[in-house]
User: What shape does this take?
Amino acid sequence: MQPSLPIVVEVTTPTGGACDCGPKFGEQQSVVITGDAYSSTFNNPQNGQAVPGFWGYLLTLHETINTFTGQVSGGWPTDWWADHRSPFPNAMDEQVMKFIGTQQNNQTLINAAAAQHERFADPSISGFDSEVAMFDNFFNQFGGFPAYSKFFQLVEQDKISWPSVSQDPNFTGDDDYSALLSEYVAAYLSLGFGTTSDQTVAFANDGVGTLDTTETPYTMTSSAVLGIGNAHCSIRAASGAGVNVSSQLAQLQSGNFQNAMVSGGTQATCPSECSWTGSACVAKW
Assistant: This one.
């Protein structure tokens, strides 16, 4: 993913807030951060270590991550990605601060990453969020930033728009959820991770479909996650072999993955995130 740059960061007089705010000052992307975030100190809830400027690092990064993902598509699952709850940016906040802190030998950033981990990913702390821990576990298990980057690349490649696939009759800009939407996101995450085993149970066990009590609970199905992955693989393989896949791709983009399978691919055109069975290009799990 190549994000649109620059991203303007506006630091305001203290308001207590922060946002991914869209166009500002003639640029297409901006984040707005309350000014007192940069001067305040946060104490690690596990060991009490003081981290100066913690909220300045965190909020600026958090909203920038939301800006980046919004450039891939709007309408991310509000129950387990961002908005109602923010497991994905909260997990990536820790990982990015830890990476940059290590690269720059910046102990303050390393301490900020550790404090962010304790806020959400330590089950012994009261604020533990199983979905933040889920994204951290995926990060560690499947290869870190390159795995998530591959996921975003595949979503962009197929021109997937989450509001189109979710079929949520109550969709608004900050409210999008459904079992189908979660199945699509889980399928593309699994493709990006290159997993060879079904991860649907892992998503469910960590709260997808149930943890956000403001929404009606739902259950993801392994068959749908696999069907979405298979549809992607068949389309990419057939397209690489010169087959016109516009109709099937349109079905996949609109949430009708059951009607998106296409034949005509070859082993040579089956992409790396998929597996060739001898007669078809399918998901690896």
Remarks:
- The chain has ten helices and seven strands.
- The first helix runs from residue 54 to 72.
- The longest strand covers residues 7-12.
- The chain has a mean pLDDT of 94.
